[in-house]
TrEMBL record:
Keywords for the protein's UniProt record, in alphabetical order: Hydrolase, Metal-binding
Keyword Calcium in record: no
Domain called HD: residue spans: 15-177
PANTHER family: 5'-DEOXYNUCLEOTIDASE HDDC2 (PTHR11845:SF13)
Domain of life: Bacteria
Record has Metal-binding as a keyword: yes
The protein, known as: HD domain-containing protein
Pfam family, one: HD_3
Length: 198
């Protein structure tokens, strides 16, 4: 078999492991936890549907590529819970090591492209990365609201924690940040998210 094709197929086989990485958030229409592959697909669909709310003109193909790539590193590094302050201290180092291993399986040009997309998502310095990050932060909020605060309640998360952790949604979409704030307030009003200080 052609060496390039063989390395590409081996990479595709390796990233199938993304389907085994569980997140802390339940799927909306069921009792089980979402996996990283489902999460990435859902974010790509969200970006496709919601891109009209981006603060700036964005390259949609680049955003979708970024969203499909952004969590591949969790195959090695695991899913770090958003509100885990300890786990987040070395998250970037663990994920960078994973990125180098995983993307290094590909031919050099593709390895460089995927690493570049992953780094761009991480640094959030472009309109595409900021919008992609907005999708990544908004999706679990929608899930928790639909799941009666499942993860929020399980980990004793407060409304201030949700708002502080996800304020950067505004960097990608002011409209979706307002929507997020409304979801959080509705969740507090419905008693599914604890009001900070209460």
């Amino acid at each position: 078999m052609d060496e390039t094709l063989e390395s590409q197929v081996q990479f595709l086989i390796e990233i199938d492991k993304l389907k085994t990485i569980e997140r802390r958030t339940r799927i909306i229409h069921g009792e089980r936890l979402e996996n990283d592959a489902e999460h990435s697909w859902h974010l790509a669909m969200m970006a496709f549907i919601l891109h009209g709310h981006a603060n700036k003109e964005i390259d949609m193909l680049k955003v979708i590529k970024m969203l499909l790539v952004h969590d591949l590193v969790e195959i090695d590094a695991g899913d770090t819970f958003a509100y885990d302050t300890q786990g987040n201290t070395d998250k970037h180092e663990r994920e960078l090591k994973a990125a180098n291993r995983l993307f290094g399986m590909l031919p050099e040009d593709q390895a460089e492209e995927l690493l570049s997309l992953w780094m761009e998502f991480e640094t959030k310095e472009t309109p595409e990365a900021r919008f992609a990050s907005s999708m990544d932060r908004l999706q679990p909020i929608i899930h928790n609201h639909q799941n009666e605060g499942d993860t929020w309640q399980k980990y004793n998360i407060t409304s201030d924690q949700v708002l502080n952790r996800n304020a950067e949604i505004a960097n990608g979409s002011a409209t979706l940040w307002k929507y997020t704030q409304q979801i959080v307030q509705d969740s507090v009003d419905q008693g599914i998210l604890k009001q900070s200080g209460s």
